[in-house]
Amino acid sequence: MTPTEVWPFFGLVIRTPRLELRLPSDDELVRLAHVAADGVHDPGDRPFLTPWAERPPLERARHVLRSAWASRGGWKPGDWSLGLTIFLDTEPIGIVWVSATEFAERREVSTASWLGLPHHRRGYGTEARLGALTLAFDHLGAAYATSEAFPDNAASVGVSTKLGYEPDGISRDVRDGEVVVSHRLRLGRERWELNDRSEIEVSGLEPCLPLFGAA
Predict the structure, then answer these.
(1) Could you state, in order of their start, the residue ranges of all structural domains in the chain?
(2) CB neighbours of 105 closer than 8 A, spacing ≥ 6?
(3) I want to staple 10 with a disulfide (CB 3.0 to 4.6 A). Which of 4, 18, 40, 95 is the partner?
(4) Contact criterion met (CB below 8 Å) for 3 and 26
(5) What is the pTM assigned to this prediction?
(6) Tens digits of residue pLDDT in 73-109
């Protein structure tokens, strides 16, 4: 059997006008880890609750590998986290995560992402999330998508605003012994339908559907 026959997500591909979103090969995953090692945000910024991107380069690289392995090993239909590497001209530049809990009942996903620092402010984040949400809403039947961002994370909030997310309260968490507040944002199907995704293509999905718990 081929790897795709055993784990059909290797055949799932989302194409946007400039990007390709898919699971990486082992060699590509290592290349993605190098992107993280080179930095995913400006020094002094703290965009993530878990400060993995503030650690030394080798630890950042290892975090990328551990996250990919953990998501595959912990996968359950209905409870999953799909980390799609973002490729630009065959080179990995970041990752977008689509995650769900009790998906068949709740029909809700959450998203998170990062890009290598040289690829910021070029619209790739918006394009990648639009591709990931096309999978969730148009092909898996999601009713809602959620996201969270610190108030000073203008890039993440900007992507959410462009795609139609609306305020959904706050979250309070502890980071380094201090309480930090995040804005919760929610995108419903009615607002999602206003987004143009005519240039988004999703292929290789059908064998994956039972593992998504989308039936």
Answers:
(1) 3-212
(2) 78
(3) 4
(4) no
(5) 0.94
(6) 999 999 999 999 999 999 999 999 999 999 999 999 9
